Amino acid sequence: MINAAVVGLGTWGKTMVESLAGGSPPMRITTIQTRTVKPDDEAFAKQHSLAIAPSYEAVLKDSKIDAVVLATPASGHLRQIEAAAAAGKHVYCEKPFTFTKEEAEQAIAALKKAKRVVGVGYNRRFHPEMIKLRDRIKAGELGIVQHIEASMTYPNALFLPPTAWRSNKSEAPLGGLAPMGVHAIDAMIYLMGEIDHVYCQSFARVVQTGTDDTTSMLFRMKNGVSGYLGTMTTTGAVFAFQVYGSKGWHRIEGVTHTSGASSEERRTRQFGACKFQPVKGPLETWEAEKLDIVRATLEAFARAAEGGAPFPIPPEQIIHGASVSEAVIRSAASGKVEKIA
After folding, report:
1. Cys-Cys crosslink for 144: which of 168, 201, 246, 319, Cβ 3.0 to 4.6 Å?
2. Is 0.85 topped by the overall pTM?
């Protein structure tokens, strides 16, 4: 059993604690640490029988804690990961891991040197429907894959105060990229391999808090497949992921993390209606299995930390994902096609 501390107790930090409540998974949360402890944080800790650490340094000094789970803004991840590695802790990091290839490489190198396990919260690829889609592609059931695309939207930016960190462009560049888009980018890497180059346009149409709300990206994979990703933070919630091939297309639908939704909904409703339309034959439709993908991702990390199967997202893909985010941000600023480093 891996004992872990959740660092950062916003909505998602609490969601991860709740995902492991009630049961005997290979990891249990014993401690939380947050910058400012509010009365509702104290009530949450009491409800889940959690200790509250006074600082991140205190978490790292606690010999009873095997791993840290970072639910903090990406700008601090490198420093936090390096410190955790130096303290001998395994690290599970919520996405985005970093926004640059260099920082991702440094973080991975620190953990590798310390012989500690790294996990990242790209939980969409853990759902059985995403695994089935990958198997269908590998089996040739879609024929020659031509294009892969995703749309990810939610209304959360309509309710964010200007003081929220997600309203800060340095913490949440390109609006929906960090909270949503990186999930789709990781899924594209999982299904199609590395991305070669990208073009992005991003701007604010609705909110004027300092960050964007409407972003679209065009990709070209190294294997020749084209890709598209659109994110919006000021409309109804949707998750739509589709792969087109010469023998048909496969589509997965669901929702993203809508502000105010219950913890269970945030963890289990990302996948819903699924469709497969072959070139010849009737449309196939089915409903996705209900699965807590947050718990599934944390359990995979814990098993790896215990010496079991490696975490399914290898370090080189974590680094490549950060490289893609870096190029997307660079393209939005330059207005040009940018090569992935």
Report:
1. 246
2. yes
